[in-house]
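User: Fold this; tokens only.

Assistant: Input:
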Amino acid sequence: MEDEEEIILTEAAEELARQQSAAEPTGDDGSDVGPLGLNNGQLHEIRLGDDIFDDDEAMVVRTDVPESEENRTSFWQILKTHVIYIQCYFVTIACILGTGILGLPVTLAQAGFYPFVVSFLIGFVMQVLLIYFFTDLLQRAHAYQIEKHKAVSVEEVQLPLREINDNDSEDGSIDTANGETGGRTYRHAMPTIEDIQRPNLHMLGTLFLGPGWRQLFDIILLLQFVFILISYALAGSEAYAQVLNVEYLYIIPVFVWILSISIVFAQHVIQPLISILTLAKGGILVATVVVTFGVGAAVANEIKNNFQYMGQPFLMGTVALGGIMNVMPLMYSRIDFVKTQIRAFMLAVLAGLTTCMILNVLWCWSVLGIVPQTSTCDVVQVVEVGFESVNNTSIVTYKPVSNSPVDCSQELSLERSEKRGEIATIPLTEIINTDYPKYTWVAVLIQTFIMLSVSVSFLTMGSALMHSFLGWLDAQMLWERLGRHNLLPLELKCCTPKVWRPAMCLLLFGIVFAVAMLDPKGFVVLLDKISSLLLNLEGGVFVYFMVRKSRSQTYSNLKIPLPVIRLVYPAHFVLLFYFTFAVVYDVVLTLIVILT
């Protein structure tokens, strides 16, 4: 029986091969040009070889297209690609340049400017290395999906014809390759190149982390995104409520649901909108910095530097420049697996990071030029003048008297703002409004910046959350496999991915809304602490394990366009040390505050 079945399958395969050979077009010399046939008079051939990323022509190796039309297509494709790079640049800025920049100067009360610059530049170098290694991880995950796609394609092509016919008869669908021959219909279920899944954060954890670690990574990602969005929901609602002069609890539903629905159902316009809004808020911040520098030149405030307190701005610096790896998979999904595009993508992200670093340094410098670092009203000398009745001479005595807490609390300084948990713009605007009333419009600029910044940050991080969450959801539900083999039960035919995916995303944003409406003011500081802790844990420990696992024997044969240079590879140990130190330092400081 096995011999007879093998003969039947062999004859059927030869028959199918003859049909495909007859259907395939040939060139002028009679040679085959590919299995894709004609498309509006244009002839293409696509290959999925190992050198898919060696040239910028992607997968097209031959095309008979008029020269004018080809030039027109090439121009628009190049323009579209460059627009994607510009959007990557602005999305990077939108992710990094949040309202945290407004609170950064208050950590410089004791340290001053130069210690901050040193620690901030070290953090900048670490973030550059993190982006470099993370780009390598994205490529390796993408290459793995391409190899998996090839294996699935071969498996589908080699599927027994009897099984294909059985599947056709069960679902009632008919898709002929070359009509009907001998009363039999053949169906080609081979997936296309568009079916290759792009990397997401869940996929990276699944591929490059071991059991237990990948589940912990997913939990940390979910908590981090939710905590950040809750903070943005509260901060954004308060900012808009101040402008509209209403209770901020009435703003939370409008703020959260308008942005959440836009993220879920209008994702194709979110990134261009983020680019435009980021350009606007960047312009506002630059204008604020210029005016602040101008006022600071008139004030001539002395800046005191003390390297013993360099650790104070250290943690805030890691947060002020961190978080970009959360949105990199979202931006990477829009480029092709070719060397020039991946290099341009990485350079766009690095350019956005560099822009944020420069703006942070200039902003802190300008604030230090106006707002005093520390309070100067701790102890004052009070002069008391007395007279001796005998010699009729005066006696002058100096008596140290401490000012009352009320008097000291009224003095504007970065130290006072740090103790109160205020952002640096509060003492800045008070000084400008009091001493330089002609610059009162700066307060309006700052308020506009806060509203734009929180809105853009919510859109950016919300999009990254949805991209990562859908990666996890798709992996659990296996939509593609169920749809290709028609394995969905009859009662679930209506529950397609088009229904389930947006519904689950809205449920996730509903959790953010519910927690924000509970008004957890007492937990805002805790949320910020946890967010910074999880951010450093993700950027250091988990990326280190991913980099190590991606070089294991399982993934040793993967070829990627832009691998990490061999000399730079040992730097991932530096990343582990730096971010682990940040995590331990954060935990120790938090325990000290709690215990004291």
